Each structure stands twice: as structure tokens, then as C-alpha cells.
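Lab notes, practical 5.
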Amino acid sequence: MTPVTTARPEAVSSQGAILCLLNGAAHSDGAEKQRGSVAEAFAKHAHNVRIEMPPSCDAIEDCARQAVRDGAKLVIAGGGDGTMNAVANALAGSDTTLGVLPMGTLNHFAKDLGIPLDIEDAVANALDGRVRAVDVAEVNGRVFINNSSIGLYPQIVREREALQKRGHSKWMAFAEAMVEVVHRSSAIHVRIKTPARSTKTRTDFVFMGNNEYELAAPRIGGRVRMDGGQLWVCNVPHTGRFRAIGVALRALLAVEKPKAPLVFSARELSIETKRSFLDVAADGEVFRLQTPLLYRSRPRALRVMVPVAPAD
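Output from the prediction step:
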């Protein structure tokens, strides 16, 4: 059974107002409506909560870092996995606890922790749940809570963002971006090094998960453990333009389960290449990072409010 630290809301919120950060990047009526819904949910609880809507993930991270410096016991974040990533970068390694309001499209982090997706229930959990220490991982010092990758996916995200700026819907842009990137992409020559092995490969895609991902129903794409202290690495060697997508689909449909050295676990690793910089995806956001890429697990570095009774 996973050990947890219990905390009453009074202990978490004893120092002034609790800070709630909502992703206000859209500056839209929808964002203001979300703020109103969250404020109504908080009003049902006897807590002093200050709601702010920073205009970007960078601004959200800055606000969260200031809260840590100010000695905040709890910072509640409302948004998708990108928002949770920004706040986790500020809170990891500190005594400040993260409260999660899943308000994004996929909400992988919240789902893997059993956090309710309904906003009122999520607010109640953030205020009255229990504190659990979970792992984060990092690449070149940048924290991620779900996964990171190089190769096809960061290119697809870059292309999708460009299409969205031209007015395409998110999912239509993603589909168009995938076709375009797969058509023109080239493989990357890398060396993946861990304390136990060194592999030189020409790859289309390398995926690093913060703990092991499930590749079979009913938990495809989910994680059973969030405190295993391991990076879960999946490497897809280049074998043809559309082969990488085929391999990924067969794995997700449980037709073919990858084996080592294509899939393995490690506490830390490096990815070396002749390129000075690589586009790296981390929790759906893309960063241009200097090589070599240095990955490591940070066991139980993030405190998160989770349900008192684990979800079935």
C-alpha cells in the first residue's frame, strides 16, 4: 500500500488565503465563465480563496513560485496538463501542496491520480483530500509530470500550433499536422545512455514516461503507479516513413507489446546527438533544449491533494 501523508484542510490553509491559479491564456468569455464556476464551487466551502488568471503558462509558473517563496501551504491549479506542468515546476521539491482542478481536454495527470473530473468534486478534493507524495521527472532541469518525447511528436505539436493560429480547430489541426510531419520527417541519430546500457539508434520517436504506461485495455495510456521512481522509455527505431505510427497503434491496441531494448525502465538517462539543440515535448508543450538531454526521475518530489478513499 502506498504510504501517504494525511492533512486536514486547517493545516493546509492556515496561512491566509489559498491561491487558485486558472489558465487565462484565452482571454475569452469561456475563461471568465470557468472562473465564475470555480468561484461558486469555492463559495460552498468555508475557506478564503484568491483566484487569479495569469495570461500564460509562464506567468502561472511565476505566480506559483512566488506563492512558494511566500510560504503557501496549498496552491490550486485549474486547467489542463500544461497548466499542471507549469505549477509542478514551481512546487516540486517544496513543502507546498498542489490541488488539481481538471479543466483541460485530456487531464491525464488527474485521471492517473483518481482526482474527480467534476469541478465541484475536484474543489472539494483540493480542500479536503489527503496529501500524497508522487514522482516527477525532469529533462535538463525542466519538470514533467506525465511524459516527454523527441522526434515525431514535438514536430506534430509545432505544426498543429501553426495551423491553429491560421484558424483550424485543435483536433483538425492535429490530424493535418500528423499527416504533414510524417510525410516530410526524417529520423534522428541518437545515443541513449543509462547506467546499465548504451544504445546507438536511428529513431523516429523516443518516449520517456514518468513511471510505466499501460499498453493494454482497460487502462491504455494510463499509469498504475505514480511513485515507482522510474523513467519508462520507449524507443521506436526508424524502419520506414509510416512504420513508427504502425508500431505505436499495434502497441496501443495490445496487438504487439514492445520488448527491451525498445522498452525499458531507468532512474536516469542521457540522449546524445550531433545536433546542438532538439525540440522536446514535455506534457504537451514543446521546448527547444540544448543537447545532450539529461533525464532523471525525482521520486516523491511533488505533494498533491488526492481523494481520501482511492477511486475504484
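Observations recorded by the TA: The first helix runs from residue 9 to 12. DSSP finds nine helices and 15 strands in the chain.
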